[in-house]
Amino acid sequence: MMATDAEENQVEHGSCYDRQRELKLLDESKAGVKGLVDAGLSKIPRIFIHHNLNTSSSSATNNDVSIPVIDLGSLHEQGSSRHEIIEKVKDACEKWGFFQVVNHDIPQCVLDEMLDGVRRFHEQDSEVKREFYSRDDSKRVLYNTNFDLYTTPAVNWRDTFSCVMAPRPLDPHQLPSICRDVISKYTEYVKKLGLVLFELLSEALGLNPNYLKDKDCAEGLFMLNHYYPPCPEPELTLGTSGHWDSGFLTLLLQDQVGGLQIFYENQWVDITPVSNALIINLGDMMQPCS
Fold first, then answer.
1. Long-range contacts of 33-41 (CB under 8 A, 24+ apart)
2. d(Cα 158, Cα 146) in Å, to the nearest integer?
3. How far is CA 136 from CA 14, 127, 147, 148, in A?
4. Nearest C-alpha neighbor of 157 from the set 97, 79, 228, 60
5. For residues 277 and 254, what is the distance between their CA atoms, to the nearest angstrom?
C-alpha cells in the first residue's frame, strides 16, 4: 500500500495531523505568511516543510556562472550597436532563456519606489490588507498566500499581491492606495520596455521588428508582487518552488537581498542582484515563436 505525503507524515509523527485544517486556518486568517511572523512563531508550520529539499544531485548550486547582462543604452545609436544587441539577445535566449537588461530607460528612482511600494503594502496592518484577500482569480486585484495553496505538496513561504493591468485598462482606484501611484507609473514604463524587447526578440528570430507585437504578444500585463517574510527555519522551506513561467515574457525586478536562482545545465545558478537591472525570462508561450 502506498501512502501520500500527508499520510506518511501522520504515521511518522504518530499524530492526527490534519493538513487540510492547517491550510484552512492559514487561508481564513487572511493575514498570510506575514501574519505568522507577526505572531512570533519560532518554528514553521508543517505545511511549509519541503521534505525533499536539497536531496538530489541536480540541486547543487553553481556560483561560477552568471546570466548575460545586456546594456540597452546604445540601442538607438547609429552603426552596428543595435545589431550587436540583437545578437546578444539571440545568444542569451538560445543558451539560457534568461538575461538581464540595464540602461532600459526605467529610472532607478521608479524601481526603488516600486520595491518600496510592494513592501509597504505587505507590511501594513492586516486589517487593511484583508480587503484585498481572495482566491477568486477572476478578480483583477487580489492578495493571498500561494495561488495553489490547497493543491501544492508544500506551501511556499510567500505572500503575493497581484493585479491585471492590461489589455483592458484598470481603474487606478481599484489598487491599494498605499502603492497605487507607483504601480500605475511602473506599469507605463514596463509597457514601453516590453515593446522594445519584443522588437529585439522578433529581429533575433530573423523577423520583422513588429512581428511579435502584431501577434498581440505584448497586449497583456499581469503583475505579481511577491513578499518573503523573515523565516525562522529557512533550511526547511522555499520562497518559490522551481517552476516555468507560462506567459510570453517575464520582466522581474529583484531587490538586493538575493536568493533568486535559475536552473541551467542540470544545476541551480544564483542570480546576483545587479543595480538598475531587470531580469528577462522567456515564458512557455514564446517557445512556438522560436
1. 33/145, 33/157, 33/158, 33/159, 33/229, 34/122, 34/123, 34/126, 34/159, 34/227, 34/229, 35/126, 36/229, 37/229, 37/230, 37/231, 38/126, 41/232
2. 7
3. 36, 19, 10, 12
4. 228
5. 8
Pairing of strands 69-71, 98-102: parallel
Cell numbers at 235, concatenated: 533550511
Residue 80: its pLDDT value, please? Answer: 76
Q: Are 278 and 189 in contact (CB under 8 A)?
A: no
Instruction: Note the pLDDT tens digit of each residue in 68-117.
Output: 999 999 887 766 799 999 999 999 999 999 999 999 999 999 999 999 99
Q: Find, among 98, 96, 106, 103, the residue nearest to 75 by Cα.
A: 103
Quote the CA–CA distance of 229 and 122 in Å, as a whole number.
9
Give the residue from 97, 61, 100, 136 showing the smallest Cα distance to 244: 97
pLDDT of 11 > 50? The answer is: no
Give the integer Cα–Cα distance in Å for 251 and 279.
6
The domain spans of the chain are 5-289
The CATH class that applies to domain 5-289 reads mainly beta
With a CB cutoff of 8 Å and minimum separation 6, the contacts of 247 are 220, 222, 283, 284, 285
